[in-house]
Design a protein that fits this description.
Number of helices of chain B: 4
Distance between the termini of chain B: 33 Å
Shape of chain B: globular
Number of helices of chain A: 10
Structural class of chain B: alpha/beta
Helix content of chain A: 25-40%
Bound molecules: flavin-adenine dinucleotide, flavin mononucleotide, FE2/S2 (inorganic) cluster
CATH architecture of the largest domain in chain B: 3-Layer(aba) Sandwich
Order of helices and strands of chain B: EEEEEEHEEHEHEEEHEEEE
Oligomer: heterodimer
Radius of gyration of chain B: 17 Å
Radius of gyration of chain A: 18 Å
Order of helices and strands of chain A: EEEHEEHEHEHHEHEEEHEHEHH
CATH topology of chain A: TIM Barrel
Largest interface: A-B, 36 and 27 residues
CATH architecture of chain A: Alpha-Beta Barrel
Strand order of the largest sheet of chain A: 3-13-12-9-8-7-6
Strand content of chain B: 35-45%
Largest sheet of chain B: 7 strands, antiparallel
Distance between the termini of chain A: 27 Å
Shape of chain A: globular
Number of domains of chain B: 2
Structural class of chain A: alpha/beta
Strand content of chain A: 15-25%
CATH topology of the largest domain in chain B: Rossmann fold
Amino acid sequence: MINLSVKLNDWTLKNPVIPASGTFGYGLEFSMLYDLNVLGAFSTKGTTWEPRVGNPLPRIAETASGMLNAVGLQNPGAQAVKSLYFPAIRRVFSDKLIVNVGGHDEESYIKAVELLSDDPIVGAVELNISCPNVKAGGMAIGTDAGLAAGLTAAVKKVCRCQLIVKLSPNVTDIAAIARAAEDAGADGISLINTLLGMAVDYRTGRPIIANTYAGHSGGAIKPVALRMVHQVAKAVKIPVIGMGGVETAEDVIEFMSVGATAVMVGSKNLTDPFVCKKIIERLPSVLQELGTDDINTVRGRAL
Amino acid sequence: MLKTADFVIAKNRALNQNVYEMVLTGAADFSVAAGQFVNLSLPGKFLRRPFGVCDYTADSITLLYKVAGGGTADMAAMAAGTVLNVMLPLGNGFTLGAIPAGTGDVLLAAGGTGAAPIYCLTKTLIERGFRPRVALGFNGRDDAFYLAEFRALAADVEVYSVSGELGEKGFPTRALEKEPGYYFACGPQGMLDAFAGTGLPGQLSYESRMGCGFGVCMGCTMVTRKGARRICADGPVFLAEDILL
Ligand SMILES: Cc1cc2nc3c(=O)[nH]c(=O)nc-3n(C[C@H](O)[C@H](O)[C@H](O)COP(=O)(O)OP(=O)(O)OC[C@H]3O[C@@H](n4cnc5c(N)ncnc54)[C@H](O)[C@@H]3O)c2cc1C
Ligand SMILES: Cc1cc2nc3c(=O)[nH]c(=O)nc-3n(C[C@H](O)[C@H](O)[C@H](O)COP(=O)(O)O)c2cc1C
Ligand code: FES
């Protein structure tokens, strides 16, 4: 028997594969494609206290081996997510999920976390202090160790489940931000959110994305993501969830090798909706090839 | 039921210098309807490419595509026999039930490759006993395509061109000079705005850059009178009365 289960502190996931926030909606569309119960967990679309309609179109562009998005945290608001989406998810998913929470100031984060973390379906809150597509909050917090620590500590007081802080890669010293979050009480770190990028139409000379700048994701960012997960895993003791360009079971092993306990799969869900299921099905044979029957043995080999 | 499946290119031919017709054959277990679209995975491209369904049989789908960039240029060079992964069916098609009973004059207007879903709709409406009036718009003579195919459906076909080289001079919005009882329109944004601006009852098919095409990334949201709606999953067809101009 091959063991794929991993532990995020006291939460045991049946495998380390977690669809990443913003690429899986609230799971409901995917539940019509495959049984969500094969997943370790999943992370919801970034949810804010107030409903948000997001940014003007175009919000999407393609890059070499990846994509740009400037969605801008479009979501129906924390109350609707709790009263409408959580019961619907419960019908198709029997494990706990990760709720990704965004905000524009401390109060809006606190209100959303207080409301959402109280629901038994939530295994962890993923505090999004790294969204590059909103004016206030988001990345402005995640690129400043002091602000990141302040918000983490404030949210931790009201959070009734594990608190994972999701970091932005748009910084010079990612380890310092990770340590600040850990010291402020984070139970885990997830990274990386998207890298700030841009696309231009050579014909018009204008930006393709209405918002000008957008978040870069997909295979193109994997080397940066591996490097940052490596730096953070060396800097903190709490579990690290790695992501950025994960598309295959081999990618999952690579992220665990640089210290990740679990791995999130983002953009690839958009182009191959079955990718997470395929990765989970393939993981045992990759472990067999590596001569191990426990996925936890691959963790940290590159540290 | 949404699925991804490998299809084989049965035919891929140029209709003019820029527009191609591609027939894909595949697993006989799918359903599509007029106004729905498919999302093609192309080798070497990260995002899938969305195209409206122009025609279909039990085991084939016909697309009309214009070379607009790298992905469609690659498609134009693909040989018969090439395998492409297709996600389908996507979006809500045209709602035929919304045509008020007894409406005599139904106008189907297309600009450029908007002709693809409009061809499918023309065929469907004729099968259901309608006698729609079709208005096709092109830039000039060199850009036109599918005129014979539309005429073969025995529809009443009006042609418009910006240059005036072909048919009437102007945009297919000129077809509104004879006010229709109901309309369906697919084409460039300017054309859709002009149709929606008339206040007449009808349906419009929209486009946007898409991350997923099946409703999960929020990359294609448009604000309508009913609130934020995903063009891929809540559209691409919207009722004219819901459009915010
Ligand atoms: C619902 C829907 C139906 C469509 N139906 C048709 C059709 O029947 N025939 C046809 O010729 N075209 C259609 N289009 C437009 C077609 O998808 C684009 O022209 C095509 O994706 C361009 O790809 P490219 O690689 O050649 O261009 P590039 O500019 O190299 O593409 C880069 C990225 O931008 C996206 N993109 C670029 N232009 C558009 C556009 N106009 N609309 C949406 N995405 C774009 C591409 O999908 C890709 O992700 C449709 C679009 C949508 C949303
Ligand atoms: C369309 C899209 C929407 C996203 N929305 C969110 C979000 O709401 N909250 C968040 O924390 N991250 C969001 N992300 C970032 C992803 O969760 C992930 O961190 C990033 O895309 C890197 O992983 P990937 O390369 O596998 O996509 C989004 C990414 C994409 C592509
Ligand atoms: S393209 Fe992803 S929601 Fe429409």
